[in-house]
Amino acid sequence: MSQDNYWLRRAQAGSISRRRFVGGAAAAGVGAAALGLVGCGDDDSTATPTNAGGGTTPGATGAASPTAAAAAPIDGGVLVRTLGATQFDSVDLHRAQRDEVGWLTGYTLNKIIRFSDPDAGDIAADLAEKWETPDAQTYTFSLRKDVKWQNTPITNGRQFTADDIKWHIERQAAGLLLDGTAASFRFKADWVGVKVETPDQFTVKLTLPKPNGAFLPRLAAFFAGVPNREATEKFEKSHNTLTPEAQPATNAFMIQQWTTGKDIILKKNPDHFRKGEPHVDGIIYPWGLFQDPNAYRLAFEQKQIDGWSSPDASVTKSVLDANKNTMKESLSGVSNTVLLHLNMNKQFKDVRLVRAVNMAYDRRAQVQAMHQGLGQVSGPVTWLQEGWAVKPEDLIKQEGYRIDRALEIKDARALWVAGGGPALGEVDIKVEASFAALWPDMYAFVPKMLNDALGVSQFKSSRTTYNEEIIPNLFKGEYPNWVAWTNAVDNPDPRVDIYGKFNSAGTQNWSKVNDPTLDKHLNDALLTADTSKAKASMLQAQDILLKNGHFGACNLYNYISRSARWNYLHALTKDEVTGGKSTGGFWNTASGNLEAKYTWINSKDPSYSDTVKNRKL
Amino acid sequence: MTNYIIRRLLLNLLVLWFVASLVFVGTHALPGDFAAQRVASTFTGADQTEAIAFARHELGLDKPLWRQYLEFMGELARGDLGTSLENQQSTWHELGARVPATLELGTLIVLISFSLSLPIGVISAVKQNTWIDYLLRGFSILGVAMPVFVVAILMSLLVVKFSLFKIDVIGHPHFWTDPVASAKLYVIPAIAGGISGGAGVMRLLRSQMLEVLRQDYIRTARAKGLHDRTIWVRHALKNAMLPVLTVMGLTISGIVGGQIILESMFNIDGVGRFLLAKLTTRDFAPFQGTVLVIAFVIVTVNLAVDLAYAWLDPRIRYTFN
């Protein structure tokens, strides 16, 4: 404590007497009172959505600063980012349930392969420098020989080998701890039955129990980082306690500090195999700081953090407008899809009723009302997964997405009557509480919209929660009709997700969909290693879903977050990666590993200041 | 008097047990527990029942409620306020890290509050129905009417707009580590909280003073030829202070509980924000422990205020029937 004490430091330096110490302390208090009297009198990963048919889109803004775009990257400096309401439930990536853990490992751990463009799903090398896929069941990876674990106790700069990957897969598949007890491994199902062979220290051959064309994207997706065996086993029993040593890095950043309620500090890994990365010396994430908009904004406007977003997008806009020369706008798609789910096991057994509500639900009106127009309608595959989604110009021809609202209403009313909708009595479309907390008007908006569109008065909206009512009843088919946001889109390849929801053998097929044609398209898409064939099959599957009101699991839209950042921050943007060929979209949650390459601080930018310069890890 | 104090202390113990039990029941009646909150906070579409059950078992949340209650009481009896499920830190440790910030802010709020309210209350009373009285009453009404966060936001916007000084909302500076940065961080919340806390006291003191100034003994004091300032301070203020003291005691007690709004707005890592965070995450042990500490402070301050009555007014004598 004495090291931190300003007064003791000054006293020890002989620059302050005891009398002055006491007097100074008193004066500080009085000074504050006197001032009182006077007073009386990635996070911000970004993208630039562009206008696309069928969607409500913002104007295209947010072009990279000319200064930053023209300049070569400058090394050094410390980024300070935001970390909202956050919990890390485990330092063990295999056992973690919280998405935050997967997010953090994007910076510290490498995957076998990774996405070079996480929106389009383009795959690039990471731990593996090359791979062979003779069929959709066999995958052979040749690993890089220059990958080392961070050079600190426990790992001591050890060479990364094929054994690390073998352990990584086999531990998850077994689902067992060192003492033989079973534990909850979040992605166990992905690895059960996978045979791992390591012919040498730098080759891994994986044989799947059945063909899976979506296996490569799975290896590149969220939570696919390969953690360290020694550290994981050492901290296995205390995995709930956040300890930086429990997660050694191979990637560009190492965890220097990981303290609940305080902050996360990531430090440049000097032994990272991609030389020259990262550009910055480190990143500080103050923990849960900015739950209050005032503190958040204060920190941003005084350059204590690099980016900021107000809960009210118009406030962000006003700050941007007032600082046009020093800030730039970032528009990024929010990966939590807004979803309407109708229970086809109960009230909505007749698919005509589902179609009627899907058409009556005015997606664009909701984007306008709740998100100030910042959003874009999503089909069964969201617009964020642009490589696989129905093109906007085709989507607007489908029911529920047509621009001609009168036509939608006419068709919806006819189907509602034909399906026996009026006889259903009261229909409660519940709003999930965490969604309603941000948009409380939903309780009034949803029933009014549906009643007006269908010309009835039978819709109402009440409160529900995922934990209490929805999740416990999903697998029993007893869940309510609800509208809310879903989990984050975490993989540009939607095949596994769509298969799970709509294939008759899918594990999340709560609507009990059983359509042989749909099953065939979904199976075809999943079983082929040919991506173009898979995409064609997925489009056919989506066509069936669109013609059947998504069988009750209706994706509505993905909205867009507007944020501001100082010009000195040269951030990871889609333009950066695609060479200015941004076609709209977002950086999904698998983009963290690209941060090291594209983010740097431009110390020559006029907005750069001493506050930024003086940051210390 | 000693007998009274001992009995009050015993009664306080009973109150603390009641508070602890009430908080335990209240928190456990809330929907969801820490395990569910942590595991199933996002909708993954997967069946997380097994994961939640594993987490519950690991954290000891699958024990019967009565057993958890007995363990909680047993820990309290040993002076243990429990351990956080989130980071495995003891509540004492967690509180110890946050109390300094709360006390820094609280002390400044109290200083500003009382240094504004006492003179304004007295001046307003002795200058009744003059322009000074109207001005000071207007100020106090404004202080009551303006929510604390509005005052704080307006002031911070001014600071940012005119680049007056840096409000370090990230560094958590303390008075003893960096007094200048600390003063800059705390000045706005302290003023906002001081005005808000002092406004009610101003109005109460004014009305009490007006009542006392009409008493016969004040007239007698005047007749004796005492100076006005002596009459106001020595005779009137002391008697007018009794009900004001109660309000001031509550103000001080409230400060120990943390200023949730102000702490959140300026990212001050204090008790109030800690309490809110623990309730939100259903991390009940530190929440319960913190509430209990706050309750302890409140009953203790109340006792001190009651005892101060006897000092202010020697006619008051406590007995416990």
Helix content of chain B: over 70%
User: Based on the structure, what is the oligomeric state of the protein chains?
Assistant: heterodimer
Largest sheet of chain A: 9 strands, mixed
Calculate the mean pLDDT score of chain A and round it.
85
Q: Using the alpha-carbon principal axes, give the shape of chain A.
A: globular
What order do the helices and strands of chain B follow? HHHHHHHHHHHHH
Give structural attributes.
heterodimer; A: 617 residues; alpha+beta; 9-stranded mixed beta sheet; 23 helices; 21 strands; B: globular
Could you walk me through the main structural features you see in this protein, from its secondary elements to its overall organization?
The complex is a heterodimer of chains A (617) and B (321). Chain A is 34% helix and 18% strand. By secondary structure, chain A is of the alpha+beta class. In chain A, a hairpin with a 3-residue loop joins strand 8 and strand 9 (263-268). Chain A is globular, with a radius of gyration of 26 Å. Chain B contains 13 helices and no strands. Chain B has helices at 2-29, 34-39, 49-59, 65-77, 91-126, 131-145, 148-161, 179-213, 216-223, 228-256, 260-265, 271-280, 284-312. Chain B is globular and about 85 Å long. Chains A and B meet through helix 1, helix 2, helix 9, helix 17 and strand 18 of A and helix 2, helix 3, helix 5, helix 7 and helix 8 of B.
Please summarize what this structure is.
Chain A is of the alpha+beta class. In chain A, 34% of the residues lie in helices and 18% in strands. In chain A, helix 11 (351-360) runs antiparallel to helix 14.
Helices and strands, with pairings:
The complex is a heterodimer of chains A (617) and B (321).
Chain A: H1 6-12, H2 18-40, H3 66-70, E1 78-80, H4 99-108, E2 113-117, E3 122-125, E4 128-135, E5 138-143, H5 162-174, H6 188-191, E6 195-200, E7 203-207, H7 215-220, H8 229-234, E8 253-259, E9 263-268, E10 282-286, H9 293-301, E11 307-308, H10 313-322, E12 327-333, E13 336-341, H11 351-360, H12 363-371, E14 375-377, H13 392-395, H14 405-418, E15 427-432, H15 433-438, H16 442-454, E16 459-460, E17 463-464, H17 466-474, E18 481-488, H18 495-502, H19 516-527, H20 531-547, E19 553-566, E20 569-570, H21 574-578, H22 595-598, E21 600-601, H23 610-613
Parallel strand pairs in A: 1-10, 15-16, 15-17, 15-18
Antiparallel strand pairs in A: 2-3, 4-5, 5-7, 6-7, 8-9, 9-10, 11-19, 12-19, 13-18, 13-19, 14-19, 20-21
Helix pairs in contact in A: 11-14, 18-19, 19-20
Chain B: H1 2-29, H2 34-39, H3 49-59, H4 65-77, H5 91-126, H6 131-145, H7 148-161, H8 179-213, H9 216-223, H10 228-256, H11 260-265, H12 271-280, H13 284-312
Helix pairs in contact in B: 1-13, 5-6, 5-8, 5-10, 5-13, 6-8, 7-8, 8-10, 10-13, 12-13
